[in-house]
Every structure is written in structure tokens, then in C-alpha cells.
């Protein structure tokens, strides 16, 4: 099971933050342009599949660059809303707290396939050029009898107001 979630860390987390809010389309107080994110993902309790034995886990590091603009922030919000409306999962958001220095919230989802997911997000906006935080995800359900958890530690920094060949709202992996 591959988790491409981490490869899109900054846009995804900013999208989650947008979904958690009602209904701000205002970008966070960060510089818009090219951002680089390093995401360390730790997983445990994964179900058996072709690539990993049951209960496997470990740490994976992803580094990606993404182009964030005020429009891509708004589009991410709209896209997440559309996906949530089309989804078979029922999600609720609680404990939302946002100011100029941090964004935190909890999200709980349950789906038709018997999955229950709890997500806790905490991002610190260190400056308009840097942020860090963590995300913890816990899944339970028939396919995860032992439960599965994933924690991610994110460090992101602004690189340039010029995104180069990366289009707004897109990201690409960076190989160290």
C-alpha cells in the first residue's frame, strides 16, 4: 500500500485546513510561490498486501516542492468540498483553532466500507516563509482489525515567489 499523501503534504494540509474552516477562502499569512516540504511518515499496523507483511510499519521521508498561490488555496478548498460531497464517507470537524501562528483541528470520518478514521492536525506558521507541524491518523475497520496509525512530521519552507515549471496547486517530488 503506497501512501502518496505525504508527497503532497503542504497542499494537502492547507486543503485540510481550508475544509476545517467555515468558509474562509482567505489564504494563510504565508508568502505565495514555491515551497519545499520535508515529510517524515511513520506507519504501524498496516494490513498485509503484496509489498508488506501485516503489522508492518516504518519511517518514510518524502521531500516535495509545490506552488502555492492565493487562487490555488481557494481552488484546493473548493476541490476538497466537492470531494467531500461526492465521497461515501461522513466526516465531521471539531476543535478548529486558527490564528496568524497556527492551525489545529480534528476530523473524524466513517465510510460505507466500515472504515473509521480520526485525524488530528497541528501546523505552526513560524513566519511567512516557514511552517512545521504534525498530523496523526488512526484507522479502524474490518480491513484493519489491529488498527492502523500514521504520524507525519512536516517542515516546510518558502523558496521563491517564482514557481518555475511547477503549476499552481501542483507539486513534484524532490530527490535528495
Structure characterization notes:
With 176 residues, this protein is α+β, with helices and mostly antiparallel strands. It has one domain. Helix content is 16%, strand content 51%. It has helices at 9-20, 70-86; strands spanning 33-46, 56-68, 90-98, 102-110, 116-127, 130-141, 144-160, 171-173. It has an eight-stranded antiparallel sheet with strand order 3-4-5-6-7-1-2-8, covered by helices on one side. Strand 4 (102-110) and strand 5 form a beta hairpin. Helix 1 (9-20) packs across helix 2 (70-86). The protein is globular and about 45 Å long. It starts with 8 loop residues before the first helix and ends with a strand. Mean pLDDT is 76; it is low at 1-12 and 15-24.
The end-to-end distance, rounded to whole angstroms, is 23 Å
Ranges where pLDDT stays below 50 over 5 or more residues in a row are: 1-12, 15-24
Helix content: 10-25%
Strand arrangement within the widest β-sheet reads 3-4-5-6-7-1-2-8
Question: Roughly what is the average pLDDT, rounded to an integer?
Answer: 76
